[in-house]
Amino acid sequence: MNDAALALSTLEVHLDRVARNYLYLRKKLKIGADCAAVVKADAYGLGAAEVAAALYAQECRHFFTAHASEAEAVAAALPPAGAPDSAVIYVLNGPHGMAAADWQQKGFIPVLNSLGDIELWAAAAAAAGKRLPCIIHIDTGMNRLGLTALDVTQLAEKRTALLQGLDVRYVMSHLACADEPGHAMNLQQLAAFRQLTAAVGQAFRYSFANSAGIFLGADYHFDLARPGCALYGIQPYEGAANPMHGTVTLKAKIVQTRVVGAASTVGYGAGYAAAAGDNLATISIGYADGYLRSATGRGKVFVGGQACPVVGRVSMDSVVIATGHLSQPAKTGDYAEIIGPHQTVDEVAAQAGTIGYEILTSLGKRYKRIYTGL
Ligand SMILES: *Cc1c(COP(=O)(O)O)cnc(C)c1O
C-alpha cells in the first residue's frame, strides 16, 4: 500500500479547479481590470505555496497575504521579485512584522491602513532615499482597517509631503456585504469609495471587489479585483446556484465498527442514546483536524455515497457515525467523505453553524495532503 492508502485521513486539493475558478473570475471582470488572488491564511487552508504556483501558471501576477511571514511562503513558490514576469505580493495587515529594509529587500508591498502606517512608510522612504511601493486602504464602511474620511481629508492636506515618498500602486477599499447582492451597503460603499478617492485629489489605480464584489458588476471592478473564497470553491454570494467548483476532497478512514449490544450511549457526556443492534462506525477525524465540535448532532458524512449522521459529540480525534442503513455494511478501512462530490464545504459549514471560510481555514495538519491537477 502506498502512503495515501495507509493514511487515516486524506485532503486532496484539486489545483486544476482552483485554476479554473480563477479563470472564471478573471473572465467576469470588465476589460482592463486585473485579477489578483487572495492567499492569506495559507490560501484559506489549501496551501499558499501550491496555490500561488498554480495561479502564477495561469498568469496571475498579484497575490495578497495578511502577514509578511505568509508573503515569504508565497514568494518561495514564485520567481524572485524583480525577475522578468515576476509577481507582486501585497500584505493586507500593514507594514509590520518586518524591518523596512526587509520589506524593500524582499519586494513585498504593504497595504497602509492608517495615517500612522503612511507616516511610517513615508519616513522609511525618506531614510531609504527612494519612493517605496504601497497600497493605501480607505475604509468605506467596514470600520476594520483603512483610513477614515477624516484621515483622507488630512492626507489630502498633507498630500505633497506624505505621498511624495510613496509609490502608490493602488488605492483600495473592502466591501462588507457583497455576498448579499441586494444589500444597501454595496451602493453606499461604492459611492463612498468614489467620493473619498476623489477627495485625495490625485488619480490612482483602484482595487475594490472581493469575490462577491466581482458578481456585483463592472462598476465594482475598478483596476484590480481581490477574490479569495471563490477561488477555493466557496459560494461567493447568496440566492443563486454556486458557479464555483469545489476544490477539496476530505476523507477520513473508518478505524472501528461495532454493533451495539444493549441500549447504551455514545461518546462524551453520554449525549446520544443508541439502541441494541445499532451499527456504528468510528472515523479518524475530530475537532483537532478542523471537524468542528459544533457539528455534534447535526453533521453528516458519506460512506459509499450514502449519508451517515454523526452521533454523539465530536471528539478531538474521532467521530462516531450511524451506518445501519447502508446498503453495504461499513467496514474498517473504508473512507468516509467529509467534503467532496457528495457534500460541499458550504454544506459542512452549515452543519457546524459557520461559514465555508472557517471550515477551510481550520483544516488540520494531520491529513495526508495530496495535490492533484498540477
Ligand atoms: C480576505 C479579503 C479579501 C478576499 O475576500 P473573499 O470574500 O474571500 O473573496 C479581499 N480583500 C480583503 C481586504 C480581504 O481581507
Question: Describe it for me?
Answer:
The chain has 374 residues and is an alpha/beta fold. The protein has two domains: 32-232, Alanine racemase (TIM Barrel, Alpha-Beta Barrel); 248-372, Lyase, Ornithine Decarboxylase, Chain A, domain 1. Helices cover 29% and strands 23% of the residues. The protein contains 13 helices and 19 strands. The protein has a seven-stranded parallel sheet. It has a six-stranded antiparallel β-barrel with strand order 11-14-17-16-15-18. Strands 2-10 form a two-stranded parallel ribbon. Strand 4, helix 5 (68-75) and strand 5 (88-91) form a beta-alpha-beta unit. The longest helix has 16 residues, at 184-199. The chain is elongated and about 80 Å long. It starts with a helix and ends with a strand. The model has no long low-confidence stretch (mean pLDDT 96). It binds pyridoxal-5'-phosphate. Residues 38, 40, 92, 174, 210-212, 226-230 line the site of pyridoxal-5'-phosphate.
Question: What labels describe this entry?
Answer:
374 residues; alpha/beta; TIM Barrel; Lyase, Ornithine Decarboxylase, Chain A, domain 1; 2 domains; 7-stranded parallel beta sheet; 6-stranded antiparallel barrel; 19 strands; binds pyridoxal-5'-phosphate
